[in-house]
Write a structure and sequence with these properties.
45% helix, single chain
Amino acid sequence: MDTLAADLAHEARQLNLSALNMAASPEEVVRPFAQVVLNELAARGLLDSEPTVGCWARPRSGSH
């Protein structure tokens, strides 16, 4: 199992979420989990996201 899947499964267990109880899960539990999922996918370049300051920063040239 890849790290992303393991991390998301751990988070779902912490929130007592599963595919079996999704319809009965309160929005205040599901929404933060969805945010974690979307952030992780965006961090891996699989979804668009807002640019993060310094995210694409390059080391300074030695000539400065």
